[in-house]
Amino acid sequence: MISHVHVGIGDFARACRFYDAILPLLGLEVRFKEPDRGWAGWQEPGRARPLFLIGKPFDGGPASPGNGPMTALLSPDRRTVDLVHEAALAAGGTSEGAPGLRPQYHPNYYGAYFRDPDGNKLCVCCHHPE
After folding, report:
1. Cβ neighbours of 22 (radius 10 Å)
2. What is the mean pLDDT of the segment spanning 11-25?
3. Helices (H), 11-130
4. Which of 48, 94, 116, 122 falls between 20 and 30 A from 42, CA-CA?
5. Any idea what the Cα angle at residue 81 is, between residues 23 and 76, rounded to 5°?
6. Exposure string (b/e) for 42-80, b if CB count within 10 Å is 16 or more?
7. Is residue 25 part of a domain?
8. Backbone angles phi, psi at 121, to 5 degrees
9. CB–CB of 78/86 below 8 Å?
10. Is 113 a domain residue?
11. pLDDT tens digit sequence for 30-70
12. What is the mean pLDDT of residues 72-101?
């Protein structure tokens, strides 16, 4: 259903350091990095879609996160949720909610929330029982 997700960034090198620290933990690998164009993309090995993309805004204006938009990345297990949240904070992100169960969504929902260095809100979550 989803072709790609694009997250706006301001500093390409800083954003790459952040996403290089968390996306491999979720099994995503670099598909391309084009610093001269200010964008990069990651994907699951052997699959063309979906892509997770970062880049400077097309209109040339500053990147700015919205109030409400969030990208949720699927984790294979709860331990990986913990590892990604920890890696996100170590790579310059800020916590928006520590890893834990969120039974208000469903009994097995285990998630963590954080913002990247540009302020984009991300979630990493697992829907499986422990």
Report:
1. 25
2. 98
3. 12-22, 78-90
4. 94
5. 75
6. bbeeeeeeebbbbbbeeeeeebeeeeeeeeebebeebeb
7. yes
8. -85, 130
9. no
10. yes
11. 999 999 999 999 999 999 899 999 999 988 899 888 878 89
12. 97
